[in-house]
Design goal:
The complex is a heterodimer of chains A (370) and B (528). With 370 residues, chain A is mainly α. Helix content of chain A is 68%, strand content 2%. The radius of gyration of chain A is 24 Å and the shape is globular. In chain B, α4 packs across α5 and α13 packs across α14. The chains are: A mainly alpha (370), B alpha/beta (528).
Chain lengths: 370, 528
């Protein structure tokens, strides 16, 4: 938990250890505590849960949602939201599918079979493009982020269906004769015994953590979400910051789409439906505020792990899928209520203490006056 | 417009020529000539709405002029953004605080111009520079503290520190002291003198004329978007400034106050209210005020004194942590807003755009909003009754609108405010509470609103209003309650005090409880 001591801007200030008790510390780190509790409970219920193999499998399931959540986090810090990422997941997989199956360029009378690295770059670029469209709508045309990305949610999904004509691209492993093999690396390979997806998640996490916590871009990001007018008057290029976060979110979604397509060695246009909601849930469980200005990479990661480990645990102990959905909903609502409850409680307690001292002062004064 | 002194032209660093600014149909500036001299403090003085802030925003690149030019060192310049102005050496401390509560002090000071090492923010350099600035301002706070955890005065100092870090040649200070204590103001003045000694030019705007008299070398008076007078500060006094500012005998704007206070209507005792912006702090710390029938009570105080929080708690928007609010014998301390309105207690909020008006509704619907239950018959609203009542209220408050069905946005600020007041009156209140009722409206509408308040008081209701304008409490009320740091620092009779006494009373750093907990009858005067 080395990262927990590193305070990103926008996180609560690290009060001196002496000032806060263990209870407050636990409440402060509640998402992490919840994750530990979750693991302990499921470990007690199922012998197979807390084994290295299962932990790696579950983390692999978490990986693409964590990548989506980190993109979403950046957008949410600016006070926006990105509903289009689930559709981008589908679209990026389909684009990869088209390119690997052979891009029919009938006007030139050829079918192109680009190399895998080209396929990956093009798919990510498609994600960036949809993100740029979101950014454009939000910054240049002043469309509310919810509406703009709701629109692109449909547009991107429609594009995926149009390109694939509604059908799935199977067998994406490529053909050695065409020189386009190796796509399975993203979803199937295990360098150093760890699935590639987990490595990608780690790389994204480190990169986005540095971006948010260490660079001028990060400071400006939190400033934009904290007080947009103040940021603007301070010379922060607010529009460009927003444009960039939607593009990054699009790239994250494109990456998630590639991982899933590679894992399944097939691409379906419906892939990723409602993934944006999981990402939002992860970010919110991680303590970010939908009003903007607050949230950390660490939080979003823990949020993604809570959701993933919970889902897999419920499956392993045999809870029905219908109940799984209900429980996931409860966890999300509970997390947010705890978050607000904690703030209200600390504030109310501090105010009550201050009010008491004023009341004593007033009582003494009234007594003296009589 | 008086002739500008061009004798010392070489000394002029920055100059505005014939600058005009039009917002919608309102002329905020009507061709202003204004000059800033090297190493001088120029005080820009005028009433609310005279155009001071607009002129400063234009000089600082926040707004662009509709007409006219800006010159820097004799060369015409245009600033498309505050960043461009800063690049030319013109910085501004804004009237309203523009800080990010979620960032640390150091991050706030350097946001947009981060000190970096390679691709990364150099936190140590930023912290050290921030520490130095804070020590210079004699406010040694840890620069890692979140700005949201600071009290208002400290936040204003951060705003000042930020402007100082820009090392400007022309530094505009728009109400830099509105939340500062007397000690902090002295520190600021010391800093200003150091800056001018180094050749930095300051434009200083303040409600506190005594501050302008003390620090400024030159006074420029703005009224209704025109420069009406200017003079070296050494040649003028407070009386001259006030006459130029108001343009007439000050009292002429206000309705006569011949009131005969009756029974106590609203009794606020020992009220304690949390600060809604940072709920772990108290905004009101044991305030007692009584409003009698037929009386207008004015609450005066600096920014952060707790005026708005007091009024909003009275109206039921802020929860009360201690004390009582009693209207005609009925305890409303923990009643809901609608229960209070039914009982006869309603607030005209400070920010009418945010809290007062529903932009999608017409003038008439906005006005009828709070009293709609009066027009309900069975399941439906009787449109005829509603329109009739709105028509009558419109006449009382003298709204100028094309019709009831006109969109609320088509009205001027003054008329919008009249609609909000008309809505309050439609609920047939016993006590009318108004927070800054004349903010951002023209002089004519101001006079109308004060006449209305006086007339309502003569009809037997109680009026409680808050303001940051000295002239308003001196002339528009029967009794002045002065607040400082969440307490009542004095209760004064407007016929017996002057501006200086009032300002002194509002600038007490730790008000004594002795003057606070006594619900004063209107006849009592305090031994200020």
């Amino acid at each position: 938990m080395a990262t927990t001591t590193t305070k990103a801007p926008g996180a609560a200030p690290a009060p001196t250890a002496a000032k806060r008790g263990i209870g407050e510390f636990l409440l402060d780190q509640r998402a992490f505590v919840a994750l530990i509790v979750l693991i302990i409970v499921f470990a007690l219920l199922s012998d197979a849960y807390l084994t290295p193999t299962n932990l790696i499998t579950m983390t692999k399931h978490v990986a693409y949602n964590a990548i989506l959540a980190m993109g979403m986090l950046l957008v949410i810090i600016t006070g926006g939201i990105d509903l289009s990422i689930g559709s981008i997941v589908g679209l990026s997989g389909i684009v990869a599918g088209v390119l690997l199956q052979g891009w029919d360029l009938s006007i030139f009378d050829v079918t192109a079979y680009p190399a895998v690295w080209v396929v990956v770059l093009v798919s990510l670029a498609v994600g960036a493009l949809v993100g740029a469209l979101n950014g454009l709508l939000v910054t240049r045309f002043g469309v509310a982020p919810f509406i703009a990305t709701l629109g692109t949610l449909y547009i991107a999904r429609g594009a995926a269906l149009l390109i694939s004509n509604g059908s799935t691209f199977p067998r994406l492993q490529g053909d050695p004769e065409l020189g386009n093999t190796g796509f399975s690396f993203l979803g199937v390979a295990r360098p150093l015994g760890i699935p590639t997806a987990i490595w990608i998640m780690v790389i994204f996490a480190v990169a986005i953590w540095i971006l948010t916590a260490k660079t001028p871009f990060g400071r400006r990001l939190y400033a934009t979400g904290g007080n947009e007018r103040a940021a603007e008057l301070g010379g922060v290029p607010v529009r460009s910051i927003k444009m960039k976060v939607y593009i990054i979110s699009g790239v994250c979604a494109g990456m998630a789409g590639l991982i899933i397509a590679s894992e399944l060695t097939s691409a379906a246009p419906q892939t990723g439906t409602s993934f944006e909601l999981n990402a939002i849930a992860a970010v919110v469980i991680g303590g970010a505020s939908l009003a903007g200005g607050r949230g950390t990479v660490k939080g979003a990661l823990i949020g993604a792990f809570v959701i993933g480990f919970l889902s897999d645990g419920l499956v392993m102990v045999g809870v029905s899928t219908f109940w799984q959905t209900v429980i996931k909903g409860l966890v999300i609502v509970l997390a947010v209520m705890l978050d607000q409850g904690q703030q209200r409680l600390t504030n109310a307690r501090a105010a009550a203490v201050a009010a008491q001292s004023v009341k004593r002062e007033l009582a003494a004064h009234h007594a003296g006056a009589q | 417009m008086t002739a500008t002194a061009t004798g010392a032209a070489t000394d002029v660093v920055m100059r505005a020529r014939e600058v005009a600014k039009v917002y919608g149909g309102t002329h905020a500036l009507r061709g202003v000539d204004f000059e800033v001299r090297r190493g001088h403090v120029t005080a820009l003085i005028g009433e609310n709405g005279a155009g001071k802030s607009t002129l400063m925003k234009i000089l600082a690149g926040v707004e662009q002029p509709t007409a006219g030019t800006i010159e820097l060192d004799g060369e015409p310049v245009t600033f498309a953004s505050p960043t461009e102005a800063v690049a030319h050496g013109v910085a501004i401390i804004h009237q309203e605080l523009n800080l990010c509560p979620n960032l640390s002090i150091a991050d706030n000071i350097f946001v947009g111009r981060e000190r970096t090492r390679g691709a990364f923010v150099d936190d140590k350099v930023q912290r050290d520079a921030a520490t130095e600035l804070l020590e210079h301002l004699e406010e040694p706070i840890d620069p890692r503290t979140l700005v949201g955890d600071l009290r208002l005065g400290q936040q204003q100092l951060i705003e000042i520190a930020r402007a100082l870090s820009e090392e400007a040649r022309v530094l505009i200070m728009d109400e830099p002291t509105s939340a500062l204590s007397a000690t902090e103001v002295h520190v600021l003045f010391r800093v200003i003198r150091e800056l001018t000694a180094r050749g930095v030019s300051i434009i200083y705007i303040s409600h506190h004329l005594d501050e302008c008299l003390e620090i400024a070398d030159h006074a420029v008076i703005l009224r209704d978007g025109n420069v009406v007078a200017q003079a070296p500060m050494s040649e003028v006094d407070m009386g001259w400034i006030i006459t130029q500012m108001v343009g007439r005998e000050e009292g002429a704007l206000f309705a006569p106050m011949a009131h005969d206070p009756g029974e106590p209507l609203l009794e606020i005792s020992d009220l304690i209210v949390a600060d809604p912006d940072s709920p772990e702090r108290l905004a009101v710390r044991g305030v007692s005020v009584t409003v009698h029938a037929g009386e207008v009570v004015g609450v005066y105080g600096l920014m952060g004194a707790g005026r708005t929080e007091l009024l909003e708690a009275v109206a039921g928007r802020n929860p009360v942590l201690g004390g009582r609010i009693v209207l005609e014998g009925r305890d409303l301390t923990h009643a809901s807003v609608s229960e209070r309105i039914d009982a006869g207690l309603i607030l005209v909020p400070e920010d009418r755009q945010r809290d007062g008006l529903v932009p999608a509704l017409s003038v008439g619907r906005n006005m009828a909003l709070a009293a709609v239950s009066r027009f309900v018959r069975g399941m439906f609203v009787r449109a005829k009754d509603e329109r009739g009542a709105v028509d009558e209220a419109s006449r009382v408050v003298r709204v100028k609108a094309a019709s009831q069905d006109a969109p609320i946005g088509s009205l001027s600020g003054g008329n919008q405010q009249k609609v909000v007041i008309g809505r309050a009156l439609l609920t047939q209140p016993r006590v009318l509470v108004l927070d800054e009722p004349t903010r951002g409206i023209d002089v004519g509408a101001k006079a109308d609103i004060f006449a209305l308040m006086a007339a309502e008081a003569r009809n037997g209701i109680g009026v409680l209003f808050a303001t940051s304008e000295v002239g308003e409490v001196l002339h528009a009320c029967d009794r002045i309650v002065v607040m400082a740091r969440g307490r009542v620092s004095a209760v004064l009779d407007p016929r017996e005090v002057d501006r200086e006494q009032l300002m002194a009373a509002s600038d007490v750093s730790v008000p004594d409880l002795a003057t606070t907990s006594n619900p004063n009858p209107p006849t009592t005067t305090e031994d200020e």
